[in-house]
Amino acid sequence: MRITFLGAAGEVTGSQHLIETDSRRILLDCGLFQGHDEECLPKNQKFHCNPRKLDAVILSHAHIDHSGNLPGLVRAGFDGPIYCTRATADIAGLMLRDSAKIQREDAAYRAKKAKDSDPPVVPLYSEDDAKRVAKLFEYVAIGEWETLGDDVRLKFHHAGHILGSAIVELELLDDGIWKRVVFTGDLGRRNKPLLFDPTPVDRCDVVITESTYGDRVHPTPADVKAALQRVICEAAEKKGRVIIPAFSLGRTQLLVFLLNELRNENAMCRVPVFIDSPLATRLTDIYRDHQDEMDEEVTETLKHDDDVFNFDGLTYIRSQDESVALNKRSGPFVVISASGMCTNGRVVHHLKHAVSRPENTVMIIGFQAQGTLGRQLVERRKHVSIHGRRYELNATVETVNGLSAHADAEDFRWWFGELQKNGGCGHAFVVHGEEKPAKALAELITDCCDHDPIVPQFGESFEL
Ligand SMILES: [Zn+2]
């Protein structure tokens, strides 16, 4: 058996791992490399395996860094099954159509900047390619073995990361011997609201594990709720606005769920809340459709509250006009809007109208990369630049950590501890992390593995 790391190796995006046996070629995830265009575009345009020769793709979850290049793969000739959970298929269908739209806009922008002598600019893929992907999805239920022929069996386990996310367990017949490979996808957190905890797995020959936050410990959900309550109520007293930039998938739904809980507990001041992101609103509809697949806390809440993603005073904004009207509204109120790093989307307009006034608050709840508007806000600069104009930053900036959907060092210690109790693993490959957390995780899990864990580089292959 051979495993080749074709993405998310030494970095956090572009998840793609190829598994080859004497009879099969299976790709785990087909994510998009995300970041600076000049660097990522060539990496996204070229596949380092032949898409026509792949038997199948197994998709761990719908985040774009795991699913985002499936339309590219289909465009390059792949037409086999894509195995995933039903919720992942529902979410990925929407996310990939949205991503195709971004590719089209991005190509138009590049075409405008191109010289006459440059080759013609084409989008990475089209909305039609995204629709073709949706036709290839084959649903696999969590916790049940699925036979993919005489020589491959597949089982998904709860990953606890976002709705539909799965840990992948594969049994492959290679050279007459069955081998077991486990891929964590993105591992979620224990005791986090909405989703079931990550499921421990049995002894396996190989583990491929993510490591995004392998070197840190997150605050607990209870700390997050207390912080939300404090920040929103303080802003209400000042009659200000609270602007919360949030990722459309996962983060927004978790935030709404926590606010709903605070309301149910009578622990939150009555401030109107607006969700202003068309994509987040549609994704919340999908979350609502899958409420019966969520954890015990949701089941318990549903006994006295028929919708955990709605409460009195919450409005999901759909039209542009309603969004613009918020700029004229007087406070207090809360706006939750995308994009999560304030690089584009409606949140940029809300920030433009809010940052200069001292009664307002910007609440940062996610990682903000270098070079983004979100980063300028986190650093509390005197001025921030929005759409090429300088604005004084007089609003309060509050950073609330702890809403991350990724396992922290304690979660990894627990999950690998359970694996060790179940017999441990032969080899471990640590992916989907920058150098420091990847190395920290490799060290943390050494005792669980027969061989020293490896942090592979892009393109590296291992015969096992
Ligand atoms: Zn993810």
CATH H-level homologous superfamily name of the largest domain = Ribonuclease Z/Hydroxyacylglutathione hydrolase-like
Give the integer mean of the pLDDT values.
95
Assembly level? single chain
Number of helices: 14
List keywords for this structure.
single chain, 464 residues, alpha/beta, Metallo-beta-lactamase, Chain A, Rossmann fold, 2 domains, 14 helices, binds zinc ion
Question: Any overview of this molecule?
Answer:
The protein has 464 residues and is an alpha/beta fold. Helices cover 32% and strands 20% of the residues. It has helices spanning 37-45, 64-67, 70-75, 86-113, 127-136, 221-237, 251-264, 278-289, 296-302, 320-325, 347-352, 373-378, 409-421, 435-444, and strands at 2-5, 17-20, 25-28, 56-58, 82-84, 137-139, 145-147, 152-158, 166-174, 177-183, 204-209, 241-245, 273-276, 314-316, 333-337, 361-364, 383-386, 389-392, 396-399, 425-430, 461-463. A hairpin with a 7-residue loop joins strand 8 (152-158) and strand 9 (166-174). Helix 4 runs antiparallel to helix 5 (127-136) and helix 4 (86-113) runs antiparallel to helix 8 (278-289). The longest helix has 28 residues, at 86-113. The mean pLDDT is 95. It binds zinc ion. Zinc ion is lined by residues 61, 63, 66, 161, 186.
